[in-house]
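DM between two lab members

TW: hey, do you still have the PRA1 family protein entry open?
JB: yeah, one sec
JB: this one, 157 aa:
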Amino acid sequence: RVTLDTVRPLNMFLGISGPSFCFSPTAFNAPVKKLDKSTYEKFQSRLKLNFAFFLSNYALLTVGVALVTALMHPGMVFLVGLIWGLWGLHAFLISNELILFGRNLGTVISISHRSTALTILTVFVILWKCLKPSITVVIISGLIIVVHALFRDPSHV
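TW: and the structure you got?
JB:
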């Protein structure tokens, strides 16, 4: 489970030992010395053990990568905020009246037309602005997590 109670300390996650903040020479090593029939099982065993033990750390790492990636795409953040605000206005107009320049804003465009236009706009923004950053987050965090899980020796934790 991903909880704050299961977040491992940074020195344990990175394999840092001693007051000098150096990586321990035994913390990271290859799961096998030579390729044989049991190589796949050794890889799989190490991945399962590390995923189970460091799951909360991996979730925090993914959130951090997503945050940095979002900050690198301010246009995406602005448009997602705008879409969120428009959907909020749409929900408000369904249950309330908003009079602007003497006209009820909720009746200018029907609910179904607003829903359709907002859905099309949302899909457009997701495909145009959010797809590349999302793929970037998945690739970067996935690569870091798999490399860490493969090379972090669970017997020295």
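TW: got it. Helices lie at 10-14, 39-53, 55-71, 74-95, 105-108, 111-151. The chain is about 65% helix and 5% strand.
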